[in-house]
Amino acid sequence: MKNVLVIGAGLSGVTVARQLAHRGCRVTVIDQKNHVGGHCFDYEDSTGIRVHKFGPHIFHTSNKRVTDWLSRFTEWVDYEHRVVAELKSGEFVPFPPNLNTMKFIHSDDIINTFYRPYSEKMWGVTLEEINPNIFHRVPMRQDFEDRYFPKSSFQKFPKYGYTNLVSEILSHKLITVKLGTPFSKEMMFNYDFTFNSMSIDEFFDYKYGMLPYRSIRFHHKVYQVEKLTIFPVVNYTNNSSFTRRTEWKNFPGHGFNGDLTLVTEEEPCDFRDNDFQRYYPISDPKGENRILYNRYKSEIPSNMVFIGRCGMYVYINMDQAISSALSISQKVLLEWGAV
Ligand SMILES: Cc1cc2nc3c(=O)[nH]c(=O)nc-3n(C[C@H](O)[C@H](O)[C@H](O)COP(=O)(O)OP(=O)(O)OC[C@H]3O[C@@H](n4cnc5c(N)ncnc54)[C@H](O)[C@@H]3O)c2cc1C
């Protein structure tokens, strides 16, 4: 029986933990936060409305292996994500732009109305630096499709929320969870193997430099009306520092309060200006961040593998995090002759 340490109780870590425990390994999961779920953590606010602490998380996938695996731990609520953008005139139009959007905005203005303000706030650099080719192929739909993820065959919310789902995944007699527990190097000596979802540069004490991330400050507001709009997510096209707002009760199964509504606005920033909260790895045009990542990667100890969004320094959706964690745990178990 192997004794395994998993650093991080996000979806990547808990998927690995469950797969290893299922094969008879004794697994300890640590997280520096005081809750499980990592960045998909959600909770019921004092208003009775469910909030995703780190921004709206929409589960969507076409990966049947992932949905079959997750469905062992949760029931689901149907949902199809649609986003609108609020124009300066106050109208709400479908986003990404489709033929209905064109009734309000001329096609020549699409980039400057929608993509420039959003991208520049999001990444803190000009649109041309992010995507020099954007003007050659304007991202807009030539039909009336208004679903945000039309290609994903499975779009649902876990019925009792993401935190409940993650707790169910961790509910196994061979898994021990230690919250409020930051990783320290001595811990590794107590285990045969470590799966690590912390940022790789942090593990190496930043000896070759720091990998950059974008972060987001969340601003919660309560309005004393039943609803501001019927839309769960509204993208802004204005010049404020906010990119979008989420009105939580407009998601199915996220609670009800007839007297008020809870809204969260997002303000992107550098992660160093937000207490080092790492949300989005940055892919720079010259690939220098990937080079730095690979330099660290070449020094990973033989009894450790890095997993997840920060461990692999790549933006991954939840389904990708789970799919990747299933594959990595399978590979390691095979090497151990445990499957
Ligand atoms: C703002 C935002 C919105 C998103 N929206 C969506 C969406 O709509 N749909 C979707 O599919 N995906 C979405 N994602 C992506 C989703 O959050 C990721 O797929 C998911 O977080 C991946 O899980 P993870 O386990 O790899 O990382 P995380 O969830 O980040 O988990 C890593 C865990 O490791 C812990 N940790 C880190 N360092 C240490 C340390 N030194 N010691 C102990 N513990 C440590 C952290 O506290 C954290 O809990 C979004 C992500 C962000 C940031």
Automatic annotation (TrEMBL):
Residues 114-315 form the UDP-galactopyranose mutase C-terminal domain. Coiled coil: none annotated. This is FAD-dependent oxidoreductase. It comes from Lacimonas salitolerans.
